[in-house]
Amino acid sequence: MPGLWQDAMDHAVTLARKAGEIVRDALQNDLKIMCKSSSVDLVTKTDQNVEQLIITSVKEKFPEHSFIGEESVAAGEPCVLTDNPTWIIDPVDGTTNFVHGYPFVAISIGFAVNKTLEFGVVYSCIEDKMYTARKGKGAFCNGQPLHVSDQKEINQSIIATEFGSNRDPEVVAKIFSSMRKILCLPVHGIRGVGSAAINMCLVASGCVEAYYEIGIHCWDMAAGAVIVSEAGGVLKDVEGGPLDLMSRRVVAANNEIIAERVIKEIEAFPAVRDDVPVNPTK
Ligand code: IPD
Ligand code: CA
Ligand code: CA
Ligand code: CA
Fold it and tell me: Which top-rank group of organisms is this from (predicted)?
């Protein structure tokens, strides 16, 4: 029986599929690549068009709802997550992949009410994998139920992380240092597909035990967080404690044991929160 927010979730799936077609088509044409805060922070006309398409369509259907969209948040302005039903949109997660034709690109749509995530939709559009999850109803990929890995040994795990787009030498050193410590545990491998949302869906699918990153945003992780938790996984801050969607840091793991083991090795660094004003060059 359809439940609360089912119509919104159905609409998110429809929009993600439509957006995926646009992204795939765009790969055949001139991508119109631009830089945002730095030379490694890329955006394309497609990122902007897809976000506009999603927001315009949602506004027509749900005029009372609010939005946080990566390409609509003005540089330096804080994102405000209120109690109002809010769509948290990353129109193209994996823009660098998209620009290079590296085949892991997703449309990520999370939905929160009273600051609690109600559903998540991640469409990995090159692979044609539609990941969906609604609070309390399980997680799915193309309609098949997902479950996290039952691995409890870190030394038999794959851990995913990303280098992000921060090129501050001190930050880069900490990222490498954490990866080195985790590799030396020794884990089976370190991976990262260049899309936070897909990394999280891989945790939910059971082929990656944990994913962590510092510096990502609420739109990178909102949808993936619901998918991981509905697949039986856990979400944490990189220094322990519960995930804070606005904190720009996440550990998504198959269970508490692996999460805590990974957290122990991470050299955390401060990331300016999504909900405070930020100097866009940082
Ligand atoms: C990025 C991707 C990448 C992660 C970055 C994100 P974008 O999102 O998710 O994997 O490392 O932190 O910003 O910019 O391609 O939407
Ligand atoms: Ca981006
Ligand atoms: Ca993203
Ligand atoms: Ca994006």
Answer: Eukaryota
Q: How many domains does the chain have?
A: 2
Q: Which ligand has the nearest atom to the CA of 35?
A: 2
Domain limits at 41?
6-145
Residue 166 carries which side chain, given as an amino acid letter? N
Q: State which of 107, 108, 216, 247 you would mutate to test the pocket of ligand 1, scoring each by most atoms of that ligand within 8 A of its C-beta.
A: 216
Q: Is the CB of 90 under 6 A from ligand 1?
A: yes
220 annotated binding-site participant: yes
- Asked if residue 240 belongs to a domain, the reply is yes
Angle between helices 218-230 and 196-205 (to 10 degrees): 10
Task: Judge if the beta carbon of residue 202 lies within 6 A of ligand 1.
Answer: no
Distance CA 212, CA 235 (A): 10
Note whether ipTM > 0.90 here. yes
| 195 touches ligand 1 (CB under 6 Å) | yes
256 carries a ligand binding annotation: no
Residue 55 confidence class, pLDDT cut points 50, 70, 90: very high
Is 93 assigned to a binding site? yes
Q: Any idea what DSSP says for residue 242?
A: B
**178 within 8 A of 266, measured Cβ to Cβ:** yes
Residue by residue, DSSP assigns 120-143 as EEEEETTTTEEEEEETTS-EEETT
Give buried/exposed letters for 186-202 (b at 16+ CB in 10 A, else e).
ebbeeebbbbbbbbbbb
Do residues 178 and 239 share a domain? yes
Residue that finishes a domain, picked among 109, 124, 145: 145
Chain segment 229-264, per-residue pLDDT in tens: 999 999 999 999 999 999 999 999 999 999 999 999
